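Assemble and predict.
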Amino acid sequence: MRRVLRMSYLVAGLGGIGFFGMSMLLLGVWPGRTLEEQIRRTQPAYPLPPTASEQRGRRIYSREGCAYCHTQQIRYVGSDFKRFGKATLAWETIFDFPHLWGTRRIGPDLSREAGIRSSDWQLSHLYAPQALVADSVMPAFPWLFDGAPNRPRQEARDLLDYLDTLGRNRALAGPEADVHARDAMDCSADERRYAFGKGELNASPAMARRSGEFPLLPRVKTQPAGQDVYARNCAGCHGARGEGNGKGADGLSPKPTNFTEQEYSQTRLSQALWHGVAGSAMPAWRDVSRPDLAAVAQVVRSFSATQAEPQIPPPVLELGASVYKARCAQCHGATGGGDGTAAGQFPIAPTNFRTQRPSLAASLRTVRNGIEGSPMAPWTNELREDEINAVAYYVRTFYTGDVR
Amino acid sequence: MPESSEESAPPVVETSLVYAHGLAAFVALLISACFGFWAAAELVVPQLAGSSPWLTWGRLRYDHTQGIMLGWLGNAFFAFLYHAVPVLTGRSVTNLKLGQWLFGLWNFIVVIPGWILVLAGFSQPLEWAEFPLVIDGFVVLALLLAAIQFLPPFFSRGLEDLYVSSWYIIGGLVFTLLAYPMGNFVPELLPGARGAAFSGLWIHDAVGLFVTPLALAIIYFVIPASTRRPIYSHFLSMLGFWLLFFLYPLNGTHHYVFSVIPMSAQIGAITASTLLGVDVVIVVTNLFLSLRGTGWFPRDPGLRFVSTGTMFYLVVSLQGSLQAQMSINQSVHFSDWVIGHSHMAMLGFASFAALGGLVHAWQRIPWASYQAGMINTGYWLLLSGVIVMVVDLTIAGLVQASSWKSGAPWLDSVRASQPYWAIRIFTFLPIAAGFFMVMAGLFAGKPGAGLKAIRDTVGPEPVAEIAPRFATGGQA
């Protein structure tokens, strides 16, 4: 009897170890094999491995616990698909030693962070998140910098480089690779829809776009809701009074616009809010409700200090027109529409003078000094003072307001 | 019950090691709770981190959970084992010297250096595995020493009469030793999704194969020892045990539902999670039936902690089965609901069980201090703190989930969380005070008062009477 019992416990004990081994096989090794196979069939020919700097950045990301507030996995569910984009494929994770999937989202998923934000935004944000995003709870990482957001140490550069790899391979592989992966992937129809369905690879509502459709926001009266939206989202950069001097403005280049010296058509405001300003730190705000956007557009408008327009003598305008045609039109377009022949080559789109009008002082200043961090160069070495004056006047004549 | 002559000599309980690990457990607990508190506070006032990397949220977060798991629960479990193993087996643990080495290794090579290294920036971004690789090596070594220290008494006696606590102890020690490397080393070697599949297993095994078995070993031990009645059914005990060890390891992938890990593995894990709920109902029914007659709040402090821990075990396990279901997981995953769940598991279930085990063992050290009043006050503070925290975080999770689903700007979910995060900070007060009171009750009272309390209430506890309570033969 005792021997039978003893035997049975031995069997049970070995069985127990067997259970454990089985769990490893069933949930670790076997899925691993399946994934390996899937990766082999679906991955693009030349996925880009991380550089040394990107790997160092990844270690910083690991060490600071970023993965405990940010996931790096877009799940195969509708809400993730809508908010972040197409679900993460197995091959997208092949360089992740160890994985940084995360199980908690205090901040948004970062699987597709590359391309959403400009570098100056990222660095300023890492330096002091609350300066740009008033209600953020993200910790600041000032030890990666030399005392200012625009003086990153190597560590901050590495981290930035790493952030730029997130989602990069899938974006580079392009739609063809997705078609290839879709055909080779063995999964349910639902999963297929979330991984490859109609929608954007990167659905971030903050990603700036250079062009595209946008809803024209209705003109509304100034209202407290707008002030609220502005204070929460915009004041950090554009300043409480719209003077472009918010707490977060220091590290940005180009600097946030000073609204007091701008006049905007509703078209321009709608476009800037819906698409952001690609190439600058100005994010898009597609996740803010339309009424809130309309209200905040009105707040921006309200900052503008309208002045009596000076009368310009015709000879000055003629001089301005000729300088403009020779020096400015290739970028700003023959009729000031920001659509010159060279416009497409630059990271930031040249200003469309038909839909916005800088004050005379701002126009003069810009032509003299250029805009730091943008393709708009200073002209004092190229043009005479009277030419500068004339062309600065002249560009302001294109403005048509909301007549399209 | 076989009674050979050598077994009648009472086994030695290494009381000095019970005491040392108990003290270390409380110290680690209070430090870990402070890490958690500071991290929680930074979510409301991010500036609290100052500009020092040592206080950044991520590093505090790493130290909080590692400290709780290894520093607090690890030490508390060891303290309990030094009491329980001799009682269960009638044999002393392997060696006092080995115990001193284990104590030193665990606390001065693993926990303290682990904490410091994490704060200094050396860590792994893997859940329940945040201490850096060097430390992991020593953890494995320590687990090996623990196996050598605690397991031989069971085997030298023969397995046929093992009481269920013994099974949990053997299971817990052996499986943790096997599972630990899997969660800590494998994801460093296998990239991305493939490594994550193993991480998922470890996230669950840390709780399921280390914390749960040892906590259950305590519960199964303290109930018959305090009520002086055998457990209700040894059959249900063993059924529960084997189902648990079969099902727990199969749960891991439920941490990555809707991920790219093959759907069949996810569904397998979800099924196992559902069955686990059933198993826990079996286990807990057996425990409650064994507790019958002791009331909701048993008078014996050790038993009271253990009984409440059992309650938490039931609730947290059913919640676990529920949130593994796809329809629920879809919305509450990634939210504070899960943080609430893990606090109910580690703080409600495991810590209450560990406290019960510590108090129980402590009372039986002839020279140790003991003050029941403070322990009771501590109990109430803890109970209220845990409940408020868990309810608070669960609601926060639901609020976050609905905000994410609505498509509102991300920051809306952060703003909506603020009141709940603020309340969570304040739950630190009753919880820390509660732990502190229990600790005070164990270190500041009159020496020997524990044993005296037992004698005065239920009468003396001759060694010869203890063993039969754990006998598995002849049902009472």
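Chain B has 17 helices and two strands.
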